[in-house]
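Q: Can I see a sequence and its folded structure?
A: Here is a first one.
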Amino acid sequence: MPGHEKPVALLHAGRATYLVTERSVFRLEGRSFVRKQQLSQPIQCAAATDTALWLGTRAGVQSVSTASFKMHQLPLPGPDAAPSITAVFRDARGAMWVGANGPGVFRWAGNAFTQELHTPAINGGVATADSAVWIATSIGLSRKQGAEWTRYNEEGVANHEIPDNIVEKLLPDNAGNLWVIMSDAICVFEHNGQRGAAEEELPTVKFIGRPGNELTGVAAVPGLGRLFATAQGLLLLPNEPAGFASFAPATDKVEPKRLLVLVALPADAGNPVLLETDKQQRLWLVGAEGVAVLTGKELRRLAQGVPAKALAGNLTP
């Protein structure tokens, strides 16, 4: 990537693919990403609609037309119209949501923002295919299903419990699971579980790989298992033993078994921080060095330790 900018989001809108980094917006043209817009304020999150990209910056929300790439500010209600934006996402019904540190959470409806949540310490937000909206905060996890908000926290109010109140980020994977990354634990709301009910024991671990290892992306790979993008590298949790749900809830005990497999990529691929699966079931690996695309067959070969001289789908910005 030019300047080795930190990737923020890989977005597919119609037939187009966009890469948003901490300062720039790129569009995939042929086999290269071409910069279309550059911002002075750092970009912290991004989402796509049919006609625009929404960028959450440290100074408010910017809308970028995918036709002209012209930008315009979308001010939030209240005295601070351009706060630090920590979440921008589109829900299952097509509505856009914005989370801001300080003002709270807003939904865009009728060309105006409506406040949905007043919690000030917003760290992230996502929507899942079951029409739920999830908001990560420093005082727990909030979920909106229909008109009702449910809060999960360490105290387990109404039996809705998670092991830590500080929810740092939310990572949905391509299998419909939602991974909740907290300051002292990682848990998963599984797609086949009843998210609307009070989960008694969520599958939970203290960390992935080693203590303090940052988790930035998750993908489910058919026939292999779950793949994690971490600061330690790509880590694969194979389907055998039988998945994440077989782990006990988090305790102070450290499990000595070595279940994770390090997936060694070619040296020029760098260390991916984003994992995205497209409609063709190809895996996109995005890092500061560039973007690589792997078929399921190529990924399985790498996971089995077969060396690769180069990635067949390598894309060089």
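Q: Show me another, different protein.
A: A second, unrelated one:
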Amino acid sequence: MKQLHKQSTSTRKEEEIPISQTPPYSPKSLKHPRSLPRSLNYILKEQRLLFILVGILIGSTFFIIQPSLSALSSSDSRPRISAQNRELAVTTVRNPFGDGRNYNKYSNGVGRVPVGIGAKRKRIVVTGGAGFVGSHLVDKLIAMGDDVIVIDNFFTGRKENVVHLFGNPRFELIRHDVVEPILLEVDQIYHLACPASPVHYKYNPVKTIKTNVMGTLNMLGLAKRIGARFLLTSTSEVYGDPLEHPQKETYWGHVNPIGVRSCYDEGKRTAETLTMDYHRGDGVEVRIARIFNTYGPRMCLDDGRVVSNFVAQAIRGQPMTIYGDGKQTRSFQYVSDLVDGLVALMEGEHVGPFNLGNPGEFTMLQLAEVVKETIDPSATIEFKPNTADDPHKRKPDITKAKELLNWEPNISLKEGLPRMVNDFRNRILNEDEGKGNK
């Protein structure tokens, strides 16, 4: 018991002995005295102070030098734009129409547009963009500085019409039939896809009306989903064989719904109906253009249209074919005039429909004489029976386009026809050489 008492007593005494206040030896305590604050202690470790000083030096140098560099660059760039070598600042796109006008990449003549100044570059899809009218429209849009996506199944379109744009970063080409849906993100849709000449739309009339109905439905559905503005290129054929002359947009037409041309005529009338229903029912922004006879470079050589027929036949030394008595009339506009009208309609605030055509009226006999005068005065004329449902008169009233779009055609037939002849002559010559004919 005494021993147990002694052990407990000794244990209690050991607990009461205070622990020594002297800290154990540490080499770090010699390097950094405890009197320094912990933040300074951290900075002084491992050369952190050196890195902080270097960072401050670099930052101050940047803020001192950068304003002077930007001022110098802005002062140097101004004289270059106004100097004699203006091509460095303004990119002039080759005129696709051959009409003497220049199209600049930047309309204000400045190579670089500051943020917040100038119009937003649009992303635009053109269905049928490798065709005759479509390819000229694409050239115009590219020249305006927009990004363009061409959709074409190449039934009547040709890659040769857009090959000069291959490699342009603002141009895309998609081989696709608009009868099938497609998903894109664009701001505007120019819907031109459809065979437009009698030879082509009569070749497969069911396909023609499917293109007009299903193709238009698909592109309107796309416009609805993405909030794009939609332009339908309709046709003067919606007036049929008109009982009103000249034709105004208020005229409802005189069309044979079961004739050989009805796949095109009624197809376009249905496309106009769909367009207006999407506009009224779903709030889609739409525009409708009714295009009258158009001519120019890149037309198909043998598409059955009167201007291309006459020109190709005269160049080949063949008789020019007139169907009927030659007294039926047409109005002919040059393709660049039409393209200007389409862009004015798309960029305007009016739905339409709008007649886009040249009110200058020619009989087939008068047109043949102009072609003879331009190509070969010795060319002959051959008469054949008229085709079914061929309109006797066709002349647009363009008062509405003049007043609301500030548009009217500027190029006369005698001025525009030689430009088309040069294009046809080169293509027919190459075609003959490819066949081995000399």
